[in-house]
Design goal:
With 447 residues, the protein is an alpha/beta fold. It has 13 helices and 15 strands. The protein folds into two domains: 160 residues, NAD(P)-binding Rossmann-like Domain (Rossmann fold); 209 residues, 2-Layer Sandwich (Dihydrodipicolinate Reductase, domain 2), CATH 3.30.360.10. Strands 14-13-12-11-7-10-9-8-15 form a nine-stranded mixed β-sheet. A six-stranded parallel β-sheet has the order 3-2-1-4-5-6, with helices on both faces. β1, α2 and β2 form a beta-alpha-beta unit. The relative contact order is 0.14.
Amino acid sequence: MAQSQPSRRQVLTTAGQVAAVTAAAAKFAPSTYAASNQTIRLSLIGCGGRGTGAVGNALNVKDGNAELYAMADLYDKKMDIAQRALAKRYPDQVHVSDNHKFTGFDGFKKAVDVLSPGDVALCTTRAYIRPVHVEYAVSKGINVFMEKPFAPDPAGLKRMLKAGEMADKKGVKIAAGLQCRHSPARAALIERIKTGVMGDISYIRANRLGGGGPLGNVGDKANSFEQQLLFGRTHLLWVGSGHMVDNLIHQIDECCWLMDGWPVECHGMGGKVHTDDHGQNIDTYSMEFTFADGRKALCGFRRAPKGFREFATYVHGTKTAAQFSGNVHAATVHQFKDQRISNDNIAWTPEPDAMSPWDYEWVDFIDAIRNNKPYNEAKRAVYSDYASLMGRAAAHLNRIVTWDEVTGSDFQFCDYLDKLDYNSPPPVKADENGYFPAPMSDKWTEL
């Protein structure tokens, strides 16, 4: 259609609209943008292996111009160990002075407060406190990287959703630790599926089957709040969601990515292998997720010695099958000639990923910060965690759990997260023999 010349009023109106948008962008820019010559300073909150690994991925970004600037943890020793390890690998990018190392339950606030617009707070502690830390950083206009899981219970995920909504209003950027979403090889298979070459997706299989030991009797440490934080990361549900969610959330997220949606219900079953386990986990989880159109994702987790091991995600179409993910989140991606999964039956393989998904994740995040691109993974990450909690509850309760049930729940393991100190009472206690309460379908609540 031929375009007529705009009137003076149209020009002025358009100019006013552009000016309004520019003003709004300028309002948000200080919270989200780092100029090309500005160093992106990182505050590491939680100095364990996952936190130090995330710092390494951030510092790996070529021309990222990032530095580790501050640290916070409950213990000086953990900070010192992490700082030495990172300084050895990145001697020119680790600049943490003694007055930028903070301990205690309020140390995270100090680690955020020393940052400036464009910087990043890495929230990588145990999952129980993640919503509190992310909420505070966002309220201060500081960009966030948050490790998974994002909360151990539905109430925590509701709080995290609100923090994500606040981030949108403030223009704060949030990256979430579901790094496989940043794999080019996986994205290439997604695009190939969209062309119909595999037919329609019928179902997905995603398993993480391996070993791993139970929690032994920890004696006098059992009912100490501080000690529970140390030994309970995967053994106590209130601390870190339990070992299934902590590990299998990646595969559940991959299933939702492939299905391009969220499950409406999950039927779960589970059982015990380690009868001497003093923790709260069961050892086997079998989950059947159903999506809105009736398609299924079958997810399994097992902790048992000397059994069959598998760490992979497979997708089955009406024409052919494919592998979507491999061992330790490797981008092992293939389409097969038919439904037979075998290296001698591969029909197509994408260009291999040039780096790990953890590094790709930070390349994308820093690019968004440098170029002021919209970037907020909070809602998607929380929804994947909701799906994981839905699977956990279904297996623990031995019944079907719906999406509306888990997202509508206000259940919380610990309801005094904003008032914690080293002497806080533990949310769960072991009995006289050192055993913590474990899921029994007729005597259990987590929704």
